[in-house]
């Protein structure tokens, strides 16, 4: 009976990552700007409320999942932007955005193929190919090296 919620994972997984990634932008914490943290959280709550009111009546639980993703994205972008103003950290934004875009493309294709092939063995083959393709992109972007992979496997 939980399989009906499988489509929501596509939206909720990145939402949960985005909601917690703020720890990599410590600027407001280091500058002791807790008022700004309050503003970001309040604005995010308002965005979440508006998104839910707009999407849930139209899309149901899928609307709630999309609203959660939109809210988490808003929160992360605003948090990083403000934190960078207090304590600058030189992130590799091009590499990060390319890897996120690649993940989105591979996930979207997998989501689409899931609808076409349902629970067939062909679907498993396509999913495996997508996972291997994404891993290849991570190597091509230089986000993962063979040296790091050997280190992780040897542990």
Description:
The chain has 7 helices and no strands. The longest helix is centred in the N-terminal third of the chain and has 26 residues, at 34-59. α5 runs antiparallel to α6 (121-140). Helices cover 81% and strands 0% of the residues. The chain is mainly α and 155 residues long. The protein has helices spanning 6-20, 27-30, 34-59, 61-86, 93-117, 121-140, 146-154.
Short recap of the structure:
By secondary structure, this protein is mainly alpha-helical.
What are the main properties of this structure?
about 160 residues; mainly alpha; 7 helices
Whole-number radius of gyration? 19 Å
**Beta-strand fraction estimate:** under 5%
Helix and strand sequence: HHHHHHH
Given as residue ranges, the uncertain stretches (5+ residues, pLDDT < 50) are none
* Number of strand elements: 0
What's the oligomerization state? single chain
Task: Tell me about the largest β-sheet.
Answer: none
Structural class: mainly alpha
Mean pLDDT: 89
Dominant shape: flat
Counted by DSSP, the helix tally is: 7
Task: Summarize the topology.
Elements: H1 6-20, H2 27-30, H3 34-59, H4 61-86, H5 93-117, H6 121-140, H7 146-154
Helix pairs in contact: 1-4, 3-4, 5-6
